[in-house]
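Incident log, structure service

09:12 report received: a user says their structure output differs between two submissions of the same chain.
09:20 pulled the input from the user's history:
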Amino acid sequence: MRAFPHNAGTKTKDIPLVSTETEDETTPPWQVVIFNDPVNLMSFVTLIIRRVFGYSEQKATEMMLDVHHKGKAIVWTGEREKAEMYVQQLQSYQLLASMRKCE
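09:34 re-ran on a clean worker, output below:
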């Protein structure tokens, strides 16, 4: 590794600036989506939504009914890393789930 003098011909404008913004400030939030499937019972989907997200029985039931009637439901919105974790948890229970960037 070669050492260069502190002022070895570089100008301040040539040095790239390091962004102080976090991922939350620069990227859109992510949505976790559950899709309808012909296998899982509605009561099971409600149970898993409650277990994974900690939602009330009423909120989980509303989300499950959206999945059932509309074919899908957005069950969570937030940072990418957490969305990935939630999708993995839902899939471990054999639910059809994915994530997408908010529009």
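09:41 both user submissions now match this output. Likely a transient worker issue. Closing.
09:42 reviewer note: The CA atoms of residues 4 and 10 lie 10 Å apart. Residues 41-103 form a domain with the Ribosomal Protein L30; Chain: A, fold (CATH 3.30.1390.10).
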